[in-house]
Amino acid sequence: MPPPKDVVKIAIQMVGAIPQLIELQQTKPLASVLKDVCDAWSLPNAERYALQYADGRQTYITESNRRDIKNGSILRLTTSPDQEAERLYIGIQSKNVDVKTDSLKKLASLSQDVTFAQEFISRNGLKQIYSIVEEGNDTGEMLAHTLKAFTELMEHDFVSWENLSTVFIKKIVSYVNMNAVDASIQQLSLSILENMVPTSRLLFELVKKEVTLDRLLTHLQATNAELQLKAMALLIALLLSATDAERRDMMDYLREKNLRQFIHKNIVHSSEPLGDEMAHYLYVLQSVSLNLCEHRMKTSMDPYSQEQRDLLQSLRQTAFESESEVPAVSFSTERRRSLCAKEFRKLGFMNNSNPAEDLRRAPPGLLALDNMVYFSRNTPNAYSRFVLENSSREDKHECPFARSSIQLTLILCEILHIGEPCSETAQAFYPMFFGQDHFFEELFCICIQLVNKTWKEMRATQEDFDKVMQVVREQITRTLSLKPTSLELFKTRVNGLNYSEILKLRQTERLHQEETLAVPVLELREKLKPELLELIRQQRLLHLCEGTLFRKISSRRRQDKLWYCRLSPNHKVLHYGDVEEGVQSPPIESLPEKIPVADMKMLLVGKECPHTKEKSSGKQNKDVLELAFSIVHDMEEYCLNFIAPTRYEFCLWTDGLNVLLGKEMTSERTQTDLDVLLSMELKLRLLDLENISIPDNPPPIPKPPSNLNFCYDFSHAEQ
Asked: What is the DSSP letter of 545?
């Protein structure tokens, strides 16, 4: 008979004693439970003791988290958090170096626990840590433990970062700026500054002033991968906290220092695999860089701006004035105006008398003008060829350069998400971005020539403009999905994906859709669905059995802490626990926490999850909400909260958990997988019917015969 819901069977250990096996009554006060345990071992003063997990993070058991204890958990009787906090508070002030070092080491470990951290901070323990750092007498291992303890204590958000003294901050900065400092101390110092920067404008300005970009670039070039990662994290934090003007200045300086070339050579194309954190930082750096175009994208052309009018005129002059035998200045004003209007029409402007009107639409605004000018100045031969080739045609098949450029700029902005905020979790950067200065402009130069090529392949007229741009968008997105490593490779592949190839792809997709819409085929699909859905269910459960590495993400920053969760082979228990960086697939025995599948009550996703509601005071990130899900267990009182690393993992885990709960799989991935499997199965089943039309209705059943006398009577034959 299963134990009641409010009773869990656990083991309790103590050094030098035989473990106790008890049935923990969850309704019984924790103080009474501790007294019973202490009495069994004849220990006085039960209030001086506490229970904590023996494995994993060794969290203290409190009234608020006791419901997380599972059957089979192993706990340890240890000194209570207040007693331990008092002991370590005294220990870190000791004159004995060994005692002080051991106390700081223990403090760094225990500070991860919120109960202990609260006790230690309430004793003004952070003031002692400030003193150790500010005095600067301790170095090496002792200092590393001090900084680690400080980081963990601040992680609980009991104390504001703005309370830190300038002396303390400058001391942390000095560890970053010094050369003869242990790498572990520099890593911790960089991490502290990274956490500090987003919290206030004052702290951002202080860190930006004290830690120069040159110093961060030095750390980025270090061979120590962890130091490189922390330096990149601080650089990204500074860029995200800066104003638009400051961000532009910082990016200009980094460009002068060849940061892009270094990243392309030593990080993107490094022999070591790229970690998730670094991939995210490269994505943010790419996003920040591209978003520098946002201001021009959202700014309409001012017809009264002489600078902008000069840029516009330079397009006309580059294309036409070199071929004119008589200079335009020798014409009368009226003749010159008429000639300019004619030339702007040849350039492809809709409003040739006032081409500035074409650039009033924002987006793409002035960014389209910048792209056209860049194309004309950096590839003048290609520009002249484009314009003159189309302006000399009289068969209504000319491709309008200006109109195409304006629309293409808008398409590229949408594809590259220019003007959109950075995601907190995305890792999808383009390797070719770091392989090229002026990436956006160079990409435009390739794509505008693609427009002309596709236009000719389609033998398009002005009425076909939107169709051509749709094909060009498809060519670009399909090629970008292949993640080309350089713009040259992108150019080769996108030009190889010509209009006839796009037609073949569309035709294949259309035929596939048409053949699956026949009535008999639809009926066959319905018959195959249950079997294939069962196959998908088994695949989801198999994925849960293999497990996934999750990251803990707070509202302040991306966390370095990892945990792993996997389903037991018999599909009865979910095992989970914290793991170290680099652990790919920990054995199920190393995961101390458990949730019986039978105790799972409900699956929550998105805004319904408690860990997204807790952060509702801050600005919610859409991407995090889309990846969040929670398992409600134990009488709907407790949740295990997840943030999936990718949308793919989110779909597989939510599907798998729904299968365990006996519910339908609801993710978009289920429908995609089902469509793929149905398509494959239908093609195999219909292989022999190729080129044979399938009627919508089955052939009619013939009427029964008027009599059945044609049946042979075997009884007469036997006689």
From this structure: H
Of residues 363, 383, 393, the one with CA closest to residue 296? 363
Give pLDDT tens digits for 253-264.
999 999 999 999
Is the domain 83-270 a CATH 1.25.10.10 member? Answer: yes
Averaged confidence pLDDT in the chain: 87
DSSP state of 268: I
7-79 folds as: Ubiquitin-like (UB roll) (3.10.20)
- Lowest-pLDDT range of 18-22, 180-184, 273-277, 319-323: 319-323
Answer whether residue 332 shows pLDDT above 70. Answer: no
The whole-angstrom separation of Cα 415 and Cα 354 is: 30
Contact 105, 145 (CB under 8 A): yes
Terminal alpha carbon distance of the chain: 72
3-state secondary structure 514-533: HHCCCHHHHHHHHHHHHHHH
Q: What is the pLDDT of residues 569-601, one digit of tens each?
A: 999 999 998 888 777 788 888 888 888 998 888
* CATH code of domain 530-671: 2.30.29.30
| Contact present, 643 and 551 (Cβ < 8 Å) | yes
Q: What's the pLDDT band for 353 if we cut at 50, 70, 90?
A: confident
C-alpha to C-alpha distances, 44 to 47, 48, 77, 311, nearest whole angstrom: 9, 9, 13, 87
CA distance 677 to 670: 11
The tokens of 243 are what?
A: 């104003």
Contact (CB, 8 A) for 403 and 348:
yes
CA distance linking residue 119 with residue 126, whole number of Å? 11
Q: Which two tokens stand for residue 202?
A: 């004052």
Give CA–CA dist 154/133, Å, rounded: 15
Composition of the chain by helix, strand, coil, percent to 5: 60, 10, 30
List, in sequence order, every residue forming a beta bridge with 60; answer none if it has no partner.
52
Apex 514 CA angle, 511 and 520, nearest 5: 130
CA distance 45 to 48: 6
Q: What is the pLDDT of residue 615?
A: 54
CB 287 within 8 A of CB 246: no
Distance CA 544, CA 539 (A): 9
Q: Which two tokens stand for residue 120?
A: 């230690």
Q: 185 and 146 in contact (C-beta within 8 Å)?
A: no
What is the DSSP annotation of 551-608? Answer: EEE-SSSEEEEEEEEEE-TTSSEEEEEEE-TT--S--GGG--EEEEGGGEEEEEEGGG
Quote the pLDDT of residue 15. Answer: 87
- Tokens for 63? 């009234």
Tokens 């270094």 belong to which residue?
A: 262
Cα separation values, 428 from 239, 286, 416, 646, Å: 19, 10, 11, 11
CATH code 1.25.10.10 region(s) in the chain:
83-270
DSSP, residue by residue, 204-257: HHHHHHHS-HHHHHHHHT-S-HHHHHHHHHHHHHHHHHS-HHHHHHHHHHHHHT
Contact at 8 Å (CB) between 238 and 204? yes
Angle, helices 366-378/380-391, rounded to nearest 10 degrees: 110
CA atoms of 153 and 147, how far apart (whole Å) = 10
CATH 2.30.29.30 domain locations along the chain: 530-671
At residue 388, does pLDDT exceed 90? no
**Which H or E run contains 652?**
helix 647-660
8 A C-beta contact, residue 347 and residue 315: yes
Q: Please state, in angstroms and as integers, the Cα–Cα distance from residue 243 to each residue in 237, 239, 246, 494, 516, following that order.
A: 12, 8, 5, 37, 54
User: What's the CA gap between 591 and 583, in Å, rounded?
Assistant: 12
Instruction: Considering the chain, tell me which residue range(s) the CATH 3.10.20.90 domain(s) occupy.
Output: 7-79
